[in-house]
Amino acid sequence: MAFQVKKAVFPVAGLGTRFLPATKTVPKEMLPVVDKPLIQYAVDEAIEAGIDTLVFVTNRYKHAVADYFDKAYELEQKLEKAGKSELLAMIRDVLPKHVRCVFVTQAEALGLGHAVLCAKPVIGNEPFAVLLPDDLIWSKGRGALGQMVDLAGKENASVISVQPVPQEQTSSYGIVSAPNFTGRFGAIEQIVEKPKPEKAPSNLAVVGRYVLSGAIFPILEKTRSGTGGEIQLTDAIAELLKQDKVLAYQFEGRRFDCGTRIGLIEATIQYALDHDDLAAEARAYMQAALAAK
Ligand code: UTP
């Protein structure tokens, strides 16, 4: 099947325990970096990659994500009356007109693999993308997912994004081995979830962007819980490898792990320094704060 990717899955049903107490009421994906929630950055990246159907896998506590993409009638009326057209456009244009949202529920947080499987009725048998919004990827040119979609189309294969990590951190990631990795990509021979450094087949870690063939669904249906008692997407990809070509791709761009506190701080600094209105003040404050330490 040709790898034309039009649908993207955003699994946002995790518990976000690393950001408690904030995530007691605010979903992790709604935490802001400067002035946009994490989910908006991921959605913008997907739309830039040519995606027109956004599938959010949520749970019953995450109304905030659905509300964010819904129309805000009262706020719109107030801004309209007050003549605040710029702000009005900003909240109206969170999504372009040609893009549609679908929400599916993951009743229980049984793991990322299970969350992706919940999107099957919407995706069918097509190739699709998965974006984990807490991996924020900053890039100057084409976004990371766009680069992956291009490669998937050219090579007619699933594509998983990777980046090298220090060997001692392998137990925090899915790790791939791609012995013929040259330039930015190579075919994956093996993928393992969170291996100890001494058992890791390489230091190439999977980050939260995937372009997957629809063939992953029948595999996910049979995948049992693995590491951490969760149904792991990594385990299903390990099965997919036995029947299909799956490429590891090192994207151009910088990834911030906004599922951790330090990652969110780093991203905030980077985006503030890159922001037209805020850069000068942010830089001045950072310099003053460092000088005072
Ligand atoms: P994480 O491993 O970051 O888990 O999930 P988490 O629950 O969100 O956060 P912590 O570790 O407790 O702080 C990776 C991605 O998979 C989604 C999460 O929402 C996140 O985008 N996920 C995970 C689900 O949608 N459902 C699950 O059952 C598990």
CATH superfamily of the largest domain: Spore Coat Polysaccharide Biosynthesis Protein SpsA, Chain A
Could you list the spans in which at least 5 consecutive residues all have pLDDT below 50?
none
- Radius of gyration (CA) equals 20 Å
Q: What helical percentage do the residues reach?
A: 25-40%
CATH topology of the largest domain: Spore Coat Polysaccharide Biosynthesis Protein SpsA, Chain A
Form type: globular
**Tally of contiguous helical segments:** 11
Indicate how many domains the architecture comprises.
2
Ions, cofactors, ligands: which are bound? uridine 5'-triphosphate
Could you tell me the mean pLDDT? 93
Strand fraction equals 15-25%
The main β sheet shows up as: 10 strands, mixed
Give the H and E element order: EEEHEHHHEHHEEHEEEEEHHEEHH
| Multimeric status of the protein | single chain
C-alpha end-to-end distance? 58 Å
Structural class: alpha/beta
Number of strands: 14
**CATH top level class name of the largest domain:** Alpha Beta
Named at the architecture level, the CATH assignment of the largest domain is Alpha-Beta Complex
